[in-house]
Task: inverse folding
């Protein structure tokens, strides 16, 4: 398992595939164990790095992970098979905003896909959260660009960072959820529905 993880880290580096930072995934894995999380939905599989690590927390954990990029989807499938986790990790090849989930609910929803769509992902998938469930979003600092938008020369990047800043405001002002921002890795948010905090 350790060899596979190192191999995936190497692949991500060589092929410029963004994967979650080690400190961030370590934090999430601790949370999964502490909260006894069993059923996870991940938006944005990339090569399966975080899905495999999350599933490795306990043999009872099942992960559904959604990826819209075909090359990454195929790589993810390959890695899940190498990890011998194909029974516990379901890799779905589709755009998350087009997917229709029926009668499923999750203990944890992890958002780590197109940054400009975070609010849409949150709004769509919050309905599939179990009572007491958690929504985690990654990359909220976005390599230090968030909060420093005026210094960015690229118009596209500036727009993307603007959308992430709007998402952070959306979380802060969301009456349905309590959100904690964790200054670890590239920035995480942990959102819990207020009704479930009783």
Result:
């Amino acid at each position: 398992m350790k060899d596979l993880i190192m191999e995936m880290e190497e692949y991500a580096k060589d092929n410029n595939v963004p994967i979650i930072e080690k400190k961030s995934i370590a934090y999430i894995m601790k949370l999964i164990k502490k909260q006894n999380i069993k059923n996870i939905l991940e938006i944005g599989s990339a090569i399966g790095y975080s899905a495999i690590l999350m599933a490795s927390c306990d043999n009872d954990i099942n992960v559904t992970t959604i990826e819209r990029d075909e090359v990454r989807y195929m790589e993810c499938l390959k890695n899940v098979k190498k990890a011998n986790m194909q029974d516990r990790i379901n890799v779905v090849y589709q755009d998350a905003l087009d997917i229709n989930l029926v009668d499923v609910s999750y203990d944890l929803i992890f958002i780590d896909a197109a940054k400009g769509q975070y609010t849409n992902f949150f709004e769509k998938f919050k309905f599939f959260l179990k009572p007491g469930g958690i929504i985690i979003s990654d990359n909220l600092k976005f390599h230090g660009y968030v909060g420093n938008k005026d210094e960015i020369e690229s118009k596209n990047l500036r727009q993307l960072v603007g959308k992430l800043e709007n998402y952070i405001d959306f979380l802060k002002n969301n009456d349905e959820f309590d959100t904690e921002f964790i200054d670890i890795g590239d920035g995480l948010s942990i959102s819990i529905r207020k009704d479930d905090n009783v």
